[in-house]
Design brief:
Strand content: 15-25%
Distance between the termini: 41 Å
Shape: globular
Structural class: alpha/beta
Radius of gyration: 24 Å
Helix content: 40-55%
Number of domains: 2
Strand order of the largest sheet: 1-2-13-12-7-6-3-4-5
CATH architecture of the largest domain: 3-Layer(aba) Sandwich
Mean pLDDT: 94
Number of helices: 23
């Protein structure tokens, strides 16, 4: 492949990693764990992998070489910066234990396991992708590993290749599938361990022992760079309000982190909207008041950050979407037969009185988007809902009303943006390059320790990398029961923005000032070479959570 000058320079970068992972490694077990919620039901569903202890790795005494291990690796779900370094860390960890160990990558995600599509990952291949963005080494996919026939079909190729350990690199749903697979393989004595790695740029896969999901740091820095560029343009032309939608359907971590990095005039936090039972109309009024107050001081410009999943957090809209999801799950075939021209009225006739009235009141475009095909989990595809356009239009209408009443005399022109794919395959920051490599190496240590149903964990990452703590936690520890596609299923509980947490409190303390003063920050591009405080800094979120 043709490489840029930056890629050539980055290829020489050696990721920093915890001292505990260098040389001989010893696994130290802690206390037994339990599920995040619905403990008895999770225990019933995972009898062979529930309640296992968390593991921490420490420097061990020199030991006899481990027997060679054949392992497999899968990249699952949406891309996130640093995935290649997870694979590199896994590869290096396996080879450090025994140079005869081999690593196989399954092509285009979990589907590659089921369809027996794979390639052996050799040193030459791994070296081509160190410290690079994307998942193009082996590709990714969204096939869900849920059914016994899939597990059995996958086991055929694992046995054929002599693979005794499988690492699934993915988000909450992918790691839920990893837990189900680990449980099944252990229950039948398959002799294959399954290990997960926490990936999602949304930042909603974390707990006390999983500080952050990889890719979040890089994606937020990429988005913040572009937001900063827009804000500088905004402050230069002084004639536009920019409405910027950001990734994050289930949580507002990206919007909050980008706000902390760039100081926008308005940032909507979905979790706060839900907690305060705000209506769409109240959100519009909040934005419009900031616009009007700035206009009164001659500032007819500004920036508004909007999380992708906002619509689902507005309580009235959430109730409507829940009923729509349930109805469409039960009547999928019938709905597809309805002519598109009458689907709007058809749905109104099928919904409860309150939800029918709300659905009828929505702009036709938004109503149509709410009825689009669901994602594989039965949820509305919120990325297809143009929330930024909806809010901009509604704020414009509100300001027009206020102008007629003499309450507003400014000018209001808008630009709309959605930042999503731009951040998913960026070259990883030093933080993500180091963190991901350590996660992969920790996964190899979990394999060597004979663990299954675990997620690799690297903590204390606001400290220098040498002081990071590596280990693993049982995936069942993160699980509870939730309704998916009309059925209750065991899933990893998503981590939402905590309104009493330090990151949100830091934003809340400053947002009124940022609304009125043009205190924009222009972070600029990710820095890879230079002082550690510039190149290796973790997210503002993580620093605030750890009191740094």
């Amino acid at each position: 492949m043709t490489k840029s000058a930056l890629q050539i320079a980055r290829a020489a970068y050696v990721p920093k990693m915890p001292v505990a992972l260098r040389g001989s490694v010893r696994a130290v077990e802690g206390a037994a764990t339990e599920a995040a919620g619905d403990k008895e039901e999770i225990k019933r569903l995972f009898p062979h992998t529930y309640g296992m202890p968390a593991v921490t790795f420490e420097r061990g005494d020199a030991a006899d070489p481990m027997p060679p291990i054949n392992a497999g690796v899968i990249l699952s779900g949406g891309q996130a910066p640093g995935g290649h370094n997870v694979i590199a860390g896994l590869f290096d960890g396996l080879k450090a234990a025994n140079p005869e160990s081999r690593l196989f990558g399954f092509i285009l995600g979990p589907g590659g396991l089921v369809e027996h599509k794979y390639m052996e990952l050799t040193a030459d291949i791994i070296d081509e992708y160190r410290n690079t963005g994307g998942f193009d080494m082996i590709g990714s996919g969204r096939t869900k590993l849920e059914r016994r026939e899939q597990f059995d079909k996958g086991l055929e190729i694992l046995k054929e290749l002599g693979i005794s350990a499988l690492v699934i690199i993915g988000g909450d749903d992918s790691n839920t599938n990893a837990a189900v697979l680990a449980e099944y393989y252990r229950s039948i004595g398959a002799g294959v361990s399954v290990i997960g790695c926490p990936k999602t740029i949304d930042g909603d896969l974390k707990n006390d022992l999983i500080e952050t999901s990889f890719g979040f740091d890089t994606a937020c820095k990429v988005y913040s760079e572009v937001i900063g560029n827009i804000q500088r343009d905004c402050n230069s032309a002084r004639k536009y309000w920019h409405f910027i939608k950001l990734m994050g359907r289930s949580a507002s971590h990206i919007a909050l982190e980008c706000a902390l990095q760039t100081h926008p005039n308005v940032c909507i936090i979905s979790e706060e909207v839900e907690a305060n039972d705000l209506s769409l109309d109240e959100i519009v009024n909040r934005i419009a008041r900031v616009v009007a107050r700035r206009a009164a001081e001659g500032n007819n410009f500004g920036t508004v950050l909007i999380p992708e999943g906002l619509i689902e957090f507005i309580p009235a809209m959430k109730r409507l979407i829940a009923e729509l999801n349930d109805f469409l799950a039960r009547n999928k075939a019938e709905f597809k037969m309805i002519k598109k021209s009458v689907r709007h009225s058809y749905l109104i006739s099928k919904l409860s009185k309150e939800n029918a009235a709300l659905y009828a009141s929505l702009p036709e475009g938004v109503a149509r988007q709410l009825a689009l095909d669901r994602d594989p989990h039965g949820n509305v595809q919120v990325s297809l809902i143009e929330t930024e356009k909806l809010l901009a239009e509604m704020v414009d209408n509100r300001l027009s009303e206020w102008k007629e009443e003499g309450r507003y005399r400014g000018k209001f022109a808008t630009q709309m943006h959605f930042f999503g794919y731009e951040g998913r395959c960026a070259a990883p920051s030093n933080y993500d390059a180091d963190y991901c490599y350590s996660l992969g190496y920790a996964a190899s240590c979990l394999i060597r320790a004979g663990k299954t149903g675990y997620m690799a964990s690297v903590r204390n990452t606001t400290a220098p990398a040498a002081e990071w703590t590596a280990g693993g936690i049982p995936i069942t520890m993160m699980m509870n029961m939730e309704q998916r596609d009309g059925v209750m299923k065991p899933v990893i509980r998503k981590a939402l923005v905590q309104l009493d947490g330090a990151p949100f409190r830091a934003y809340a303390a400053m947002r009124d000032e940022w609304a009125m003063t043009t205190d924009y920050v222009y972070p600029g591009p990710i820095q890879y070479f230079g002082p550690s405080e510039v190149c290796d800094a973790p997210t503002k979120t993580l620093q605030l959570e750890q009191g740094k």
